[in-house]
Structures are given as C-alpha cells and as structure tokens.
Write a structure and sequence with these properties.
Helix content is 43%, strand content 13%. It has helices at 2-26, 30-50, 54-74, 80-103, 110-132, 134-137, 147-150, 181-195, 282-294, 327-349, 391-398, 404-410, 431-435, 450-453, 456-460, 501-515, 521-531, 542-562, 601-618, 629-635, 639-651, 669-672, and strands at 139-140, 157-164, 167-173, 202-206, 213-218, 244-249, 254-257, 272-275, 299-304, 321-323, 383-388, 415-421, 439-443, 475-479, 492-494, 622-623, 655-657, 664-666. The protein folds into four domains: 27-132, no CATH class; 137-218, Gyrase A, domain 2, CATH 3.30.1360; 244-439 and 494-534, Rossmann fold; 594-672, Winged helix-like DNA-binding domain superfamily/Winged helix DNA-binding domain (Arc Repressor Mutant, subunit A), CATH 1.10.10. β6 (244-249) and β7 form a beta hairpin. Mean pLDDT is 81; it is low at 1-14, 135-145, 543-566 and 585-596. It is built from 22 helices and 18 strands.
C-alpha cells in the first residue's frame, strides 16, 4: 500500500508538473482565443439591448468601419503583413458583432461563422506568433520602414530583447551567407543616426562562436555628462591586488582595473598605456590611478615626469623614487633593467610563480623559503609600479624600444609598467613596445589616432574615442585583463580632480610616507648598484625625519648669526671691518694649472675622474660629451678628448654604454670594486 501510494503520489506530482508546463507554454497563445470568446459574449449581450433598434444598426455599422480604418492607420509603422492581418481581424470581428447584435448570435450563418471564422482568426495569430519565436527567438526585421532596413540590414532578425534602466540589449541573427558581424559593426553609426543618439551610445558585441550572431546594445541616455568629483581613494590600506576604482561606466557601474596577476582568476599582470590628446583629461586619469595605487599598503612607485611634477607634486612624499626626466630618467630606466631580473630571481627562489600579496610579507611560510629546510624569514617584496609620464620625451631620448624589454620581463617580477603619452603612433612608439602594453586607458583623441590606442576589435564593437576629442574630458575606454571583454566598448569617465582635492592628496602622501611599503633590500640594492646616489629610496618615517632635519637646519642658521662661531680660527674676525682690496695672485686657481696652460695627460685624467665623481655625487648617473662642455672650457680640453676618455672609462668599468649613442651610465664606485 505504501509503495502504491508513493507511486500514485509521484504520478500526481508529475502530472501537476506537466500541466503547469503546458499552461505556461499556452499562455502566450491564449489572447486571440480570449478575444474571440469576448466578441461572442459581447454580441449576445448587445442583441438583448439593440435587437429592434434601427439607429443601433446604423451606429454599429459606422463603428465597424471606423474601427477597421483606425486599425489600418495605426499599423502604418508596422510591416505590411501585420497591418493587413490586423485590419482583417478587426473587420471580421466587428461585422459579426454587428450582425449578432441586430439579428441574434444564432440567426442564419452567424453561429457557423463564429465557430469557424473565430477559430481560424485565433489560429492565424497563434501561427504568426509561433513563426516569430522560431529560429532561436529571432523575429523578422524586414519591415517596410524598420530600423534594420534603414541601415542596410533588412534581412537581419531581432530576437530576445532585454530592457534595463538606460540599457537595451537585443539578440541579432544575420542572414546566413549574406551578412556577417562586420556588417553590423560598419552600420553602427547609421543606427545611431536613425535613433538620434551619439555614436558611442550604440555598440555591438559579436558572438565569438558565430559570424552572424551577436548583441546590439543601446544606451539612450549618457549618464556621464555630470562629472564626479574625486573625494579620496576607494580602499585606503588595502592590497594592490584589490581592484583600483577610477570612475564609472555609462550605466553607473564602477570603472575598475587591476595591476597584479591573479592565478585563481587566470589573470596576468597588466601593463598600461594611457593615451589622450590635449584637453582629454589624461592628467586626471593619471591622478585617479596613482592615488588608488599609493593608497595601498604593499606597493612602491617609481615616477618619471618631464613636466616637473606639475600634476603630481602633492604626492611627491609618497613615491619611492621620482625624477623629472633627462639624465634622471635614463638612470631610472637603466636601474629598471637590472632591478627586474633581481626581483624575478628573488621570487623564483621563494617559489612564487608570480607576485602575490603573500610575497610582500616577511617569509615565514616554509613553502616560500629560499632555504632547503624551514622558513627563511626574508623581508618581503612589495609590488612595484614604474610610471613614465609624458613618455614621448623619454622615447625620443632613449629610443622607441626603451620600454620593450622592461615590459616583456616585468610581469614575472611583480612589476607593472605604465606609459602615458598623447599620441601612441608608430612614429612615437614601435609596434613591439605597443604590443607589450596590452592594457590601455584610451581618452579622447584625434579620430585618426583611434587605431593606435584601441584594438581593432574594440573599435568594430563601437568604441570611438575620436568622437570625443577634447570636448568630453575624462571620457575613456578601458581595455585590460580582469575586465569583461563585453565592457571594452563601454565608455566610462574618470573622477575629476578639483582644487579642493589638493589637500586630500597631501594627506594621502603623508599616510603613504608613514604606512606605505618601502623598497625591499633586493630592489633597493639593485637600484643603488646602478644609479648610486641618484636612487633616493623612500624610507618609513621620511616625513618626520624631514621635519627634524628642517628644524636642525633652522637651528644651524640661527647659530651662524647669533651663536658661537663655527671654527676657532674665525674667533678674531670682526664682521664690521671692510674686506681688503684684491691683491696680486688672488685670481690664481686653487687647483689645476694657471689659465693658458694645458694640463698633462695624467692631470687631465685625474680631473676627468674627479668630474665623474662630482656627477655621481650630484646624482647624475648618465653623462655624455655635452655634459662636459663647461668642464672642457675651464680646463682647455677638446670634446674629442673627452669622448676618448669616456671610452677609456668604459673599458675600465667606470662607465657602461646606454641604449642611446653617446650616452654613458656611471657605474657607482662601490659597485665597480
């Protein structure tokens, strides 16, 4: 009995499920049948009221004609088939209704006409609906004046459509053998014109598994017109592994990017190109990214900015190393070329296939030890970002392949390279360098430069930064690992930095100076070995130390005026006595030979070595003949003689050639020992 009951229960449950399914499938087809039933009931009720009324007959006849005509007029924007079908249905229904109201629903042929004609009309609409939802949900797009016909895609079909707030997504099925996804991409500007929308509001995402299927995306309202002011970083004290929020997309969702790779997510580390013309908001975009980076606890930043930190000066205390360009940038690039393999070696010895936040902490895990047994306890290695602002100047000075090797090797070293310039064209940057920077933040530009900033596939999908130029500062497209490829063609806008943001940036710099990461011994050691004193390296507590040093300097200045003399031999000097007149021999040089006497080869070499030491002391680690012009004039030595000495110093290991002809990198004296 229990088994039978269980069987009966199962049967009842299954029967209920089938019934619910059939009812669900039948619901879309019920309206025509409900309409037929409604006409029959209404006609029978009207007969009771108007059976013997002549006026009612005239009124019903005129109403039927008027309703049929209104249906034909209202269907002028639909297809010809739908317009005719609707008009016939209305004419048949109103005619039967008038006859039933005057003569009765059972008079003459009215019952047969109702049963057969009503069923035929209802079934015709059911068949039409079935044809519309066939072939994967696509509907015919061949209307006389339909949107797709206007733009040259008359045979394309629109399928399932999703309507969201400020976003419409429609599946598109193209005519097999005649149309491809490329045809839709070429028609996007015409679709935007037909809808009276900006070009960036219409996008198309082709199906990667089909050449004739995709999604047409329309965003009717630009939600980015009002700038969003920057109020501070999104995740102060978080990890650089967390996303960097730099603005929002046109649908209101946050605009995010990632720098380190993530093995769990299958994401590689990202290098970025930030490209945009004058007035496009490139400076604000850079500030958005930098403030997000500098607010994280496990990252250091090297910055090269030939514009003398015009945009980044409030953040200066937060950088591990910042240079203004020229020889300083040459030294930084040379240091990067040596730091990257050193970092890669450290990560490899500690069993990291790529950088993770665990690598930034002290190594207490035996699984990440450089020793054969037990944890090594080595100091951690923070993530590193090398930022090259206005990189066109650097590329001109160092050659267009200056960053190629760095970008190709830096990912495995826990380092991201970010290059910012206005026009990444082939005459500014080699194709190899551009290919090694797959991530891009593309702001407004000249329409002719779109192909230099964005991949062709993203442009085909509807991304056109050239449509903005400098009229919409901050508008951008972001293409990078970790971002859904469907988002690549979605415009976003970075946050705006107003004068009020300066104080917040200064506070952020102070926070970073106190709490941010400092360079690990491997990175700092490799940098100092190449750049010597040119590499400053920010240490924890630099802000407090700077204040102490400033106080001591002020105290020393006061002592020079009001305190004890610095040297005992100056005790008898009267500051009120006039200085004596010049005596013979006072203009004789303290070092070297008198004017007009050329130094001997040994003396000249000694002077040259001293000059190199002075450059090193001043932090200028890249030199060339042009840097010795004043020195040559003082010592009456020719430029060819200096060039020869440079080559000799290179043979002695005191100099190393750089990638640019005629430029030499000074090998720090301690490193050369």
């Amino acid at each position: 009995m229990g088994a039978r009951a269980m069987k009966n229960g199962t049967r009842t449950s299954t029967g209920g499920g089938v019934g619910a399914y059939l009812l669900h499938r039948a619901k879309p087809h019920l309206p025509p049948w409900l309409g037929v039933a409604g006409v029959g009931i209404a006609g029978s009720g009207a007969h009771l009221a108007w059976a013997d009324s002549v006026g009612a007959g005239v009124g019903l006849t005129l109403s039927a004609v008027a309703l049929t005509g209104a249906t034909w007029w209202a269907g002028r924007e639909t297809s010809a088939q739908r317009r005719l079908h609707s008009a016939i249905t209305v004419a048949a229904g109103t005619t039967w209704f008038a006859g039933a109201a005057l003569a009765g629903p059972l008079a003459g042929i009215l019952p047969d006409a109702y049963l057969m004609g009503g069923a035929v009309l209802a079934l015709s609409w059911n068949v039409r609906m079935a044809l519309r939802t066939s072939d994967g949900g696509a509907v015919s797009g061949s209307a006389d004046k339909s949107l797709l016909e206007k733009v040259g895609l008359a045979k394309a079909k629109i399928g399932r459509t999703e309507v969201e707030p400020n976003r419409v997504t429609a599946n598109v099925l193209l005519e097999g053998g005649e149309q491809t996804n490329d045809d839709v991409a070429k028609a996007l500007v015409r679709i935007a014109s037909a809808l009276d929308l900006p070009q960036s509001a219409v996008r198309y995402q082709g199906d990667p598994d089909s050449a004739r299927r995709g999604e047409l995306i329309i965003v009717p309202k630009d939600m980015l017109t009002e700038a969003q002011e920057w109020e501070g970083p999104s995740n102060v004290g978080g990890s650089i592994m967390d996303p960097l929020v730099i603005g929002r997309y046109d649908d209101g969702s946050p605009l995010m990017l990632w720098l380190p790779g993530d093995p769990a997510a299958g994401r590689n580390a990202n290098h970025f190109l930030i490209a945009g013309g004058t007035g496009s908001g490139k400076g604000d975009a850079a500030l958005n990214v930098q403030t997000e980076i500098l607010s994280r606890r496990d990252v250091i930043v090297w910055l090269s900015d030939p514009k003398a930190f015009q945009d980044f000066r409030p953040l200066l205390p937060a950088y591990d190393w910042a240079v203004e360009g020229g020889a300083g940038t040459e030294a930084m690039v040379a240091a990067l070329q040596h730091v990257i393999p050193a970092r890669t070696g450290w990560l490899g010895k500690h069993s990291y296939r790529q950088w993770t936040p665990q690598a930034a902490e002290r190594q207490t895990d035996p699984a990440h030890s450089c020793r054969a047994t037990g944890a090594c306890g080595c100091e951690g290695m923070p993530y590193m970002v090398a930022w090259m602002e206005e990189a066109a100047n650097t590329l001109r000075a160092l050659g267009d392949d200056a960053f190629t090797g760095i970008a190709q090797e830096a990912r495995s070293a826990g380092c991201s390279l970010i290059v910012s310039l206005q026009r990444p064209s082939y005459d500014q940057m080699s194709t190899s360098t551009r290919a090694s920077l797959p991530g891009v933040i593309a702001l407004g530009c000249d329409p002719r430069d779109e192909g230099f900033s964005l991949p062709e596939s993203v442009i085909d999908a509807g991304a056109h930064p050239g449509a903005w130029g400098n009229r919409k500062p901050g508008y951008c497209y972001v293409v990078a690992g970790g971002i859904d490829p469907d988002r690549y063609a979605n415009p976003g806008r970075t946050q705006q930095f107003t004068p009020a943001a300066t104080a917040v940036m200064e506070m952020l710099a102070q926070w970073t100076a106190r709490n941010g990461a400092t360079a690990d011994p491997i990175t700092a050691g490799a940098a100092k070995a190449i750049a010597g004193r040119a590499y400053t390296g920010r240490q924890a507590g630099d802000t407090e130390q700077a204040e102490v040093n400033h106080h001591h300097q002020e105290q020393e200045d006061d002592d020079m005026v009001t305190g004890a003399p610095l040297d005992p031999e100056d005790a008898d000097i009267d500051p009120d006595v006039e200085l004596p007149a010049a005596a013979e021999g006072d203009d004789a040089p303290l070092f070297g030979q008198p004017a007009g006497h050329k130094p001997s080869p040994e003396e000249a070499r000694e002077l040259f070595a001293r000059a190199l030491a002075e450059f090193e002391e001043a932090g200028q680690m890249v030199v060339g003949p042009v840097d010795f012009m004043d020195w040559c004039d003082r010592n009456q030595l020719s430029r060819p003689w200096v060039s020869a000495r440079l080559k000799e110093a290179a043979l002695d290991g005191r100099l190393e050639p750089t990638s640019k002809t005629g430029r030499w990198r000074i090998v720090p004296a301690l490193a050369g020992v």
